[in-house]
Amino acid sequence: MAVDSHVHTGRDGFRLRGSAMSRIDGFSDVVFGFALTLLVVSLEVPKTYDELHDLMRGFLPFAISFVLLMTIWYAHYFFFERFGLTDTRTILINAALLFVVLFYVYPLKFLFRLFIGQLTGVVSPNQLTGRQSVELLVVYGLGFTTIYLLFTALYWNGWRQRDELELTPLERELTKIYMLDHLASAGIGLLSCLLAMVLPTSLSGWAGFAYMLIGVTKTVIGVRAGRAERKMRHVSEGGAGLPAKLKS
Predict the structure, then answer these.
(1) Chain-centre distance of CA 243, in angstroms?
(2) By residue range, what is the domain housing residue 107?
(3) Which terminus of the chain is more exposed, N or C, with fewer CB under 10 A?
(4) In the predicted model, is pLDDT for residue 125 greater than 50?
């Protein structure tokens, strides 16, 4: 697969092969838009002050859920910008990803309405039994894990076609780094599930703090990606041969 010499390059040095809108992009954006619609607190204009008050209570859970969904969309957007793939495997993996996103909209919305409601005292901490709390954390964790495993699969499929895509040594290194990034996020989701199941019921809520590790992994992997880019830029400007570990 020949690469257009006029293709743009991202800030990380990855060429953007999917800048033009494809049917996969269009369909995916429609699905993400529908998922955002499902997150909306209410589709009806409030008719009384009490209804408005209830609507405003749902603002913060909606905002958190919106940010999380946009984070998934952003990762999806960058994959297709970098690789521009439309092969059968990509379509199937993308379809599975969109299915999981739609399926987990309501559990996501319910989880954060409950969490914020308990913090503000609107919802009783005893609304759920201990077993139900554990199941809710496991359901959320499995959804989170599945989404990022599917992102890993998308990058693996891009890596599998590295020769056809004519990935540069830097792009090959970055592809492996991004696969590791999504795999680490999936591992954190799985860790949260395991903690929810093994911790005493009264402490199961601590399983949610496992997601704080995402900031650590993102920082470490971001540093690694930056080093790969700087090393390649230095090699390119110096006219030296490519480092051996970037040739794989």
Answers:
(1) 31
(2) 15-121
(3) C
(4) yes
